[in-house]
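queue> pop job 88
queue> type: inverse folding (structure -> sequence)
queue> payload:
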């Protein structure tokens, strides 16, 4: 690991220089717009099929087990590919790897229009997971590369807002389209919106504009300066996975009408917080947001102990969402500030791995716990476990 990788200036130092030197540079540029457009297409493809493929597996006789295997295969291959993507980028450049990711995400969806065996469905999910991982890692690294350093936090926040739109629109749209126009139409649409992004590939940078040696993923996972923010992020993403998976179950019955508003409020609060946190990071540095963001997320989770109170649940989701959004933005900005641009792909991979691991492990452990303690106690334990991440958060 080179000295340059460990001594990259934090966002607040660069911002201070910018204030003296003159007006801050613009965030948006043609390459960034092209990248975000292609990324929206990829995410739309993912979300259109995310719940539809499990339904398709169930419709061909695989049942609930097959539906679960389809989602599990997608996520497992995603995590595996995230480990390898930085090395691929170092060897082949951003453009080729990003283009391959779009192809791997889009083309296999077409196969589902004429294949219906469980083996074929699982293979499609595995390949699409590889493509999705590549796209997310490359997109994260390129956003950090294309946004001026002194406005990186705000740029990451804007990218987060743009990336959130497909989930809000495409996920329910896919579930509506499948029974109304058929599975095949959804699969074709998922392929097309991913592959259209290939048009944007020539307009994005091919490599980081520096000669530093990139840090590998294994080395990054041994670096305390990168692992500490990752642990804080895992703690909050685990809670986010729990919220999405178990609020519908915990609020069943009389309080069931609160589920949709609660999840919507949480997502909206997180989106606003990502942008706000990014702007604040540009002015004051991201490190100071880890502790308050973690505490807010834990307090919001603790509020779910009062599952019978709609007011407490909705208020808790506002607080949790804001804290989660702060952590999303500040952890990425902090990790990027600790490496050179050549290692942005590695940081993006580690950050995405932390997200996927927490989002999957949290609900798994919570389900076992809640079966013994009930939901209120399980939410209280979750909040307490989250606060154990205060130690790495304080050390930053």
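queue> result:
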């Amino acid at each position: 690991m080179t000295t340059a990788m460990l001594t990259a200036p934090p966002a607040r130092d660069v911002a201070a220089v910018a204030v003296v030197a003159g007006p801050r540079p613009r965030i948006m540029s043609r390459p960034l717009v092209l990248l975000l457009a292609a990324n929206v297409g990829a995410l739309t493809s993912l979300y259109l099929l995310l719940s539809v493929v499990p339904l398709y597996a169930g419709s061909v006789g695989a049942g609930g087990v097959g539906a679960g295997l389809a989602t599990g295969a997608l996520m497992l291959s995603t995590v595996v590919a995230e480990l390898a993507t930085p090395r691929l980028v170092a060897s082949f450049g951003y453009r080729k790897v990003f283009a391959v990711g779009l192809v791997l995400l889009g083309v296999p969806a077409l196969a589902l229009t004429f294949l219906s065996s469980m083996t074929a469905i699982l293979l499609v999910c595995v390949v699409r997971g590889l493509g999705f991982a590549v796209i997310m890692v490359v997109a994260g690294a390129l956003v950090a590369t294309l946004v001026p350093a002194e406005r990186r936090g705000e740029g990451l926040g804007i990218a987060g807002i743009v990336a959130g739109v497909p989930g809000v629109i495409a996920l329910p749209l896919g579930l509506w389209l499948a029974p109304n126009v058929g599975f095949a139409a959804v699969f074709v649409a998922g392929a097309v919106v991913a592959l259209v992004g290939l048009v944007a590939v020539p307009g994005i940078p091919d490599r980081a504009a520096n000669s530093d040696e990139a840090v590998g993923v294994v080395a990054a996972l041994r670096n305390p300066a990168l692992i500490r923010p990752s642990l804080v992020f895992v703690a909050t993403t685990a809670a986010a996975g729990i919220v999405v998976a178990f609020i519908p179950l915990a609020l069943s019955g009389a309080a069931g009408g609160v589920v949709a508003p609660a999840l919507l409020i949480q997502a909206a609060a997180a989106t606003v917080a990502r942008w706000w946190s990014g702007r604040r990071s540009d002015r004051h540095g991201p490190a100071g947001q880890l502790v308050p963001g973690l505490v807010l997320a834990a307090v919001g989770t603790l509020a779910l102990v009062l599952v019978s109170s709609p007011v407490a649940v909705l208020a808790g989701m506002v607080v949790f969402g804001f804290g989660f959004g702060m952590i999303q933005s500040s952890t990425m900005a902090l990790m990027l500030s600790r490496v050179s641009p050549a290692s942005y792909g590695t940081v993006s991979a580690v950050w995405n791995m932390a997200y996927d691991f927490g989002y999957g492990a949290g609900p798994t452990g919570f389900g076992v716990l809640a079966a013994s303690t009930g939901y209120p106690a399980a939410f209280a334990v979750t909040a307490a476990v989250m606060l154990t991440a205060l130690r790495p958060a304080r050390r930053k």
